[in-house]
Amino acid sequence: MLIEFFDTYAQNHKPYKGGAWCYEDGLIYRGLELLHKSTGDERWLAHLERLIAPQLLEGPALLGYDPNEYNIDHIMSGRALLYLHEVSKEARYLDTARLLISQLETHPRTRSGVYWHKNRYPWQIWLDGLYMGAPFQIAFGQRTGAADLVNDALAQVNTALELTYVPRTKLYAHAYDEAKKQPWAEATTGHTRAHWARSIGWLAMALVDIADLTGSQAFSDLAPKAEALFHQILKYRQPDGLWLQVIDEPNLAGNWSETSASAMFAYALQRAVDLGLADLPIHGIFEGVVSQSLQRNATGVRQMVNICEVAGLGMYQGRFRDGTSGYYISEHRVSNDTKGVGPLMMAYAAQISRSNEKAKAAVAS
What string of DSSP letters covers 144-179? Predict the structure, then answer.
């Protein structure tokens, strides 16, 4: 059922922003990459190559990409370039990835040394950005022998976790304003006032991907924080098998089960166990997310439902997003958005990899 859903989704996928290079498409690229790795089925690689091809221009250049925006979101899709370089050995993929590294070389940073989320969000660290930037920077550094890139990314993530940690909830704030001037930021901490589930999903995925890339020794400083976070995430799982839009407020009127964060957690928690980062009771979590997330519409077509379309901070389309619980639960819900389907692909790939490892272990015994 899931193979058919993902295959049809990839066949019908249209560029999220009219073809411009963006992280939303990159989530599908990442899902296809992990499906290809876990299954060996060439259809996933073929989908990836077909979807990304129109975005790769001569130069090299990327369609619609402006490095001067200094938008950390634009970095995420570069992971697909590194994977295509790995499997094809074609230099053009690595050459194009260098465009993104060039952005990071001059990307503005907080005084604490962490990349601004965007040029238009000065002095701000968002959890989203840790997923968008660090895994790519680490992977590129490893591919090119640039240890300084790896070390810098690890240091940034460690600093960001220190700055965004909320002792009261043992979770991490969606964003931190180092200048403490943004209207959405608490005056004393610089934090957002509520915990948006998907922001923690971005962080959880970043941590397992970084651990996978770097290994236990390099990840040792982050490991205790990651383990504690994974245990805390599990505590907030709801009876329906999903996680709430505002993850830690089950009694909040109007709070709702959000599927993209739930898929992210299903992926991250499986990978955390498989990588030895945490001993977690994860049996049935993936299946629970699938059963609640995928529903048939009136015409019988299966869709991934109840995905938060977008949530952010500050002014957007004439509306001020204040980072409170009330704001997050007011955001629009959509179906089949890449921010849900991509992570669900990743979670399914992790499930397949776990099954493959169990089968190998059974044969070996």
Answer: HT-HHHHHHHHHHHHHHHHHHEETTTTEE-SEEETT
pLDDT per residue over 169-207, tens digit each?
999 999 999 999 999 999 999 999 999 999 999 999 999
CA atoms within 13 A on the CB side of 175: 30
Per-residue burial over 180-208, b if 16 or more Cβ lie within 10 Å, else e, is eebebbbeebbbbbbbbbbbbbbbbbbbb
Report the distance separating Cα 66 and Cα 74, nearest Å: 9
Quick check: 359 pLDDT over 90?
no
Express each pLDDT in 91-103 by its tens digit: 999 999 999 999 9
Rounded CA-CA distance 246/266 in Å is: 17
Q: Are the C-beta atoms of residues 31 and 342 closer than 8 Å to each other? A: yes
Instruction: For 58-81, write each residue's pLDDT tens digit.
Output: 999 999 999 999 999 999 999 999
Q: Are 195 and 253 in contact (CB under 8 A)?
A: no
Q: Residue 124 phi/psi, 5° resolution?
A: -110, 135
Torsion of CA 123, 127, 133, 135, to 10 degrees: 150
Pairing of strands 243-244, 257-258: antiparallel
CA pair distance 273, 290, nearest whole angstrom:
19
Please give the mean pLDDT across all residues of the chain: 97
Mean pLDDT of all residues in 216-241: 98
| Distant-in-sequence, close-in-space partners of 319: CB < 8 Å, separation ≥ 6 | none
Please check whether residue 143 is in contact with residue 94, taking contact to mean a CB–CB distance below 8 angstroms.
yes
Give the pLDDT confidence score for residue 361 in this predicted structure: 78
Q: At 239, phi and psi to the nearest 5?
A: -55, -25
Mean pLDDT, rounded, for 18-39: 98
Q: Count CA atoms closer than 13 A to 234's CA, side-chain side.
A: 20
- The residues, ordered by sequence, that sit 6+ positions from 94 with a Cβ below 8 Å of its Cβ are 81, 82, 85, 143, 144
Structure tokens at 25: 């498409």
Q: What is the pTM of this model?
A: 0.98
Q: Which domains are seen in the chain, by residue range?
A: 2-355 (1.50.10.10)
